[in-house]
Prior knowledge:
Helices cover 26% and strands 21% of the residues. It is an alpha/beta fold. β10 (149-155), α4 and β11 (182-186) form a beta-alpha-beta unit.
Amino acid sequence: MTQSSNDSxxxxxxxxxAYTKGEKISYLGINxxxxxxxxxxxxxxxxxxxxxxxxxxxxxxxxxxxxxxxNDTKTSQSGNPTSNRHLPDKMMVGYVDTTAIGACAAxxxxxxxxxxxxxxxxxxTDGTLSADTLDTIxxxxxxxxxxxxxxxxxxxxxxxxxxxxxxxxNLHKLIQEHSxxxxxxxxxxxxxxxxxxxxxxQSLKKTxxxxxxxxxxxxxxxxxxxxxxxxxxxxxxxxxxxxDIPFDAILVQAYNSGLNFKYPKPGTPSQLVDESSADIIAxxxxxxxxxxxxxxxxxxxxxxxxxxxxxxxxxxxxxxxxLSAVTHQIKSNFNEICDGEHAIDPIQFGGLMCWSLCTxxxxxxxxxxxxxxxGPAGYFAEQVASLIKTH
Length: 391
């Protein structure tokens, strides 16, 4: 039942009061209901969008804000379409490998709804998109009942990106014409030249002009005392880039580095953690935030596989016969960071990323390492990705 905005029996919202799911309040003449536990979140600024604590009980429309996550296309001063959408404070980022046609077809509406950021991969080397890839993306969009941030990714394990002004022009045109909210750089070409890449990213940021999201997806490296992010496949360090250039988010692949890179476990710093343990989530974030020299304006998102088949190697936290225990460990790490336990500073923590929706939707097609087993289809979306909704 829809309440009227002048219902005098509904209590007024109080800044210092904690509200639990289902409680109703009135604020500035409008009634809201709490979606989950919340305190201090002004209803007029924190409602309706994915992951927001309040839902409006009237039919009024909220004025558009600069930090809205609604997918309304705007125009720049030049008259070209822009996005002007920003990443949520806490993200559940899901990659979609559009080359896996069968797995993409298996992705469900319910699975998609578990993510507030979805990244489609990948463009061609010149920054354009094949007709088949675009068709797959459009089919997935038709399944969406919500409005996540949508990025297009370049590179990937089997791809490259031409570091030219032409590819920047093509990428900019692509996101304008096909309503993407930004670009993800998943660069895995080991021989890439860092000085050239830095100039390319600076030029790309200038072209995007703050009107679109820009993320990058490196892997873990370095030492316990000094973590480093680098290009996969033995590629170079990206330190000179992420120290100087702010990204909307750095999507750290904590599953492609092997077992040689270890980081102190928060609360037990003498214990070093690698990617075979879910404790890599808190350990890598805490190390990167404290000593990784990442630009303070960049959010750090820790990426994990969606199941054993998502990264069939030794460095996969799902290499366990007890999937429920791994799930519990992932949730504990996420909450430890968000709640600032063990002296963790959560200020740069942007949430979790997974590779991928495809392996989660069609687990029988992706075989884990050394005889381990995947969970059932949609397990990650239901059991892990839902963290962002409830926190």
